[in-house]
# Entry
Amino acid sequence: MSGNEMEFIQEAFDSNWIAPLGPNVEAFEREVANYVGVKGAVAVSSGTSAIHLALCLLDVQRGDTVFCSSLTFVASASPILYQGAEPVFIDSEPDTWNMSPTALEEALIDAATISKLPKAVIIVNLYGQPAKMDELVTICNTFQVPIIEDSAESLGSLYKGKVSGSFGEFGIFSFNGNKIITTSGGGMLVSNNTEALKKAHFLAAQSKDAARYYQHSQIGYNYRLSNILAGLGRSQLSVLEERIKARRSIFEIYHQELSHLPAVSFMPELNNTLSNRWLTALTINNEETDMSVTELLTALESENIEARHVWKPLHLQPLYINCKYYSHKTFNVSEQLFQSGICLPSGSNLTLQDQMRVIECIKTSLRKIP
Ligand SMILES: *Cc1c(COP(=O)(O)O)cnc(C)c1O
# Structure
């Protein structure tokens, strides 16, 4: 926490705005919209609900298809299923670990051939690293397919000086407990389309018609963020820049200490982009070490250090096993990253002492191998 949260919470209690609306909600929406550089924002209960609302606003229905990055957390794609639509998964490219423009273009050409273009493309900015937006936006514009930018992990990251989340028709953020700033649980939908955002407010608050009584003509959701949690968000937003600095310097230390090991390659940062380095991720090269990712995770665990595999690609998930998937040329980047990738402890409050313990454990583990 930033330390100022209680002031905002106290203010909510003092003014008795405890409901999912109130001055903190409106102020948080305005502050995030200003930060991202878009016309408006809608505060919601999670990043997942923000993606769901974006799909509703793009009229995604049963029988439609939606393209989505494969190497991501399951929540990027779950709302596609909520709508009864079909996900098609797109591989990563090696420079950002994000959606491959080559694979996307191939998928869109195929879709156009059978006159079944997707209703949207969900582009994820993995672990804080922006995707190749110029290329991806150009391809989507050619086929006139709107983009939803899943920036749940990349709040504050930059692509050619422009803030992550501002590239698509919609952008979404998450303030879940594990993200770079948190409201304990929460999310935000952002856009320059103010009409659509008005509709998002309506859908997120049970789609209540403008009548004197409770009248509803379409499906609504209970997706609004509470005024108390929006207070947390405002306080957290004020320390976002510090958080980004902290995460980036954690990355720098890992890089300094480990990049000379032949078996280790860090997740790259594309030229002209700035990653918030939400998580430090690296890959282990099995031509340089016999140690598998799982074995390294076990070695860390035995030192009471929690590290993780990178996301298991969604096209490999049992839930999505029958979905279409387009790989990057002949090379399957997301599967390769899953086989070799690991996320290191990266919390903004990680102490240097704890970080050195992680580093020593990795050095020792990788040295063990003949
Ligand atoms: C966390 C996350 C989400 C979902 O956000 P919630 O607030 O947890 O619902 C979606 N996409 C990605 C890439 C995420 O990391």
In short: The chain has a mean pLDDT of 96. The pocket of pyridoxal-5'-phosphate is lined by residues 46-48, 72-73, 75-76, 124, 150, 152-153, 174, 176, 187 (CB under 6 Å).
